[in-house]
Fold this sequence. Notes:
Number of strands: 5
Order of helices and strands: HHHHHHHHHHHHEHEEHEEHH
Structural class: alpha+beta
Radius of gyration: 27 Å
Distance between the termini: 89 Å
Amino acid sequence: MSRKLIAAVLALAGMLCAGAGVAAAPNGKMLFEQRCAVCHGDHGHGGVGVPLALPSFLSSVSNHYLETTIRLGRPGRVMPSFRSLDKAQIRAIVHYIRSWSTEPAPTFSHQPVKGDPVHGKQVFARHCAACHGTDGRGGRGTGVTFSRPRNLPIIAPGLNNAGFLAAASDDMIKRTLMHGRKGTPMVSYKKMGLTLADVNDVVSYIRSFQKPQPGTRSANVAREPAVLVFDSPYGLEQTVKNIQHAAVGRNFRLIRTQHLDYGFVPAAKENPHQVIVYFCDFDFLYKALAVDPRVGLFLPCRVTVVQGRDGKVKVMAINPKRLSHLYNNAELDRDCDRMYRLYKDIMEEATL
């Protein structure tokens, strides 16, 4: 073997050894597409989530704000936490988001702003609550209403939110109030007719929302079963009739009753021992969809009746409380709690 060939082999071996222990850097674009695009759009133009590519947004938030938001999410505000991502992955996502702007990331002071929160509450009520809610918990809904009109082009973020308050410094909030956010209904403090003292007071009021968080709903619903199951003392046919009667008795309209595998197997080949009953309160359905269109995944209401090989009959329904937890929308929690109670009442009455 020639000296040149030996040298080339040794150089290649050295390169391979040097790279063997180096993991590939996280791909921010790929991670964004996998975790973020479904809500914020493929190119950050918004949807369920706020438009991240908006120049006025990128010029008013720090990398720390973005990283903390990804890690903690917004409890109860649709934006989930991504605690499974490591620091390098989160930074890669933020770096990709920053690629939509030619401006450098802004930096903010972490010194608290001193103001009068009592007066700030009054200013907030006059100028901010119409979008951000009377208690600062954010605009209603998710930002997606399909063909229905909505009051604002985007849903105002929740300021009275543990995730936001952990991510945003007082200085960042103050500068947003001072400059507004072009492309959204958020205007500058001068256009609102405020003084710098008013701005400081509003920032102090917003910061007053930050307090120790009680035990979260998430901890409770994690113990909820995914499916509600009741044993029926009746045969399958009678149990189905009981479900229909109980639903109608609670002002639901029956939609249809069919075999569970209808449409998935050839006609007349359906399993006669598995039946699903669909029913609906259309007024409730419309209101729930307006809160969060994702609720359409488990509406209209449905209860499944199954007879096992042993002849025993079970009544089953998806647990709305468990789904409420997965959707991370506090506004939807009330509707899911109501649905849970209705399902339980109907299933209990049908199996008495």
